[in-house]
C-alpha cells in the first residue's frame, strides 16, 4: 500500500505540473483540461502494462542468450572435432581420390589420342597402298588388253603367215598376191621416210604401194590390230611409198605412178611445215587413215615385194 500511495502521489504531482506549465486561453484551457483528465485516467493503467512488457523482453533476451550460448558451445565442439584432424583427413582423402581419378582420365585421354593418331596414320598408309594397287591393276589391265590385241592380230595373221611360208621370206606377210613387211617390233626404232626406204631396198623391196581399195583395207585392218592405244596417234603411223617432192600437190608412188585414189584424213594433205611424204595411221575409219608428214619425221614403215615363184620354194 505504501508503494501504491507513493505512486499516486507522484502521478498527482505530475498532473499538477501539467496543469500549470503555460498560460492558455480559457477555451483551450478547458479543452486541454478534459484531455489531461483522460490522459491521467489512462496513465494510471500503463505502469502495469509497461512492467509486463519489460518482463517479457527480459525473458526473451534470456532465452536468446541461452540459445546463442548453446550454438556457441556446439560450434566449439564441432571446431574441436575438426581440429582433431579426422574431418580434415577425410576431406584430404577425398581430394586425393578425385585427383587420382582426374589423372587417370587425363592419361586415358592421352592414350586415346595416341591411338587415334596411330589409326589415322595407318588409314593413310592403307589408302596409299590401295592407290598403288589400283595403279598396278590398271597397268595390268592395259597390258592384258595389249596382249589380247596381239593374240587377235596373230590369229588373224596365221593364215597369211602360212601362205607367206610358201611365197614370202620369214617375217613377211602374204596379202593380195604380194609380200609385205610391217615394222611392228618395238626393238626396231622409228626412221625417217628415206631411211625406211633404204631398209626395204636392202631387202630387194620398196615402201608399199597401196593402189587398190582391197589392199588398203587389208593393210588398215592389220595395223589397227597391232595398234598400241597407249601410244600417241602422231607417232603410230607407217610410212608408205607415196610423196609429192617433185611437184607440190602431185602425189606419186615410188614406182613412178601418180596417185589415183587416196584415203586421206579430213583436211589432209595440208602441207604444214613442208609435209611431202605420206603415212598410214591406225584409225577406226579406214577411209580416213592417211596424213602427209615431214619426210624427216620418224615413224614405222611397210615394205612390199613380189612373192617367190613356186620353183624357188
From TrEMBL:
Gene3D superfamilies: Mannose-Binding Protein A, subunit A
Record's protein name: C-type lectin domain-containing protein
Transmembrane segments: 56-79
Organism for this UniProt entry: Perca flavescens (American yellow perch)
Source organism phylogeny: Eukaryota, Metazoa, Chordata, Craniata, Vertebrata
Alphabetized PROSITE patterns for the sequence: C_TYPE_LECTIN_1 (PS00615), C_TYPE_LECTIN_2 (PS50041)
Keyword set, alphabetical order: Disulfide bond, Lectin, Membrane, Transmembrane, Transmembrane helix
GO molecular function: carbohydrate binding
Record PANTHER family: MANNOSE, PHOSPHOLIPASE, LECTIN RECEPTOR RELATED
Pfam families to which the protein is assigned, alphabetical: Lectin_C (PF00059)
C-type lectin domain boundaries: 175-304
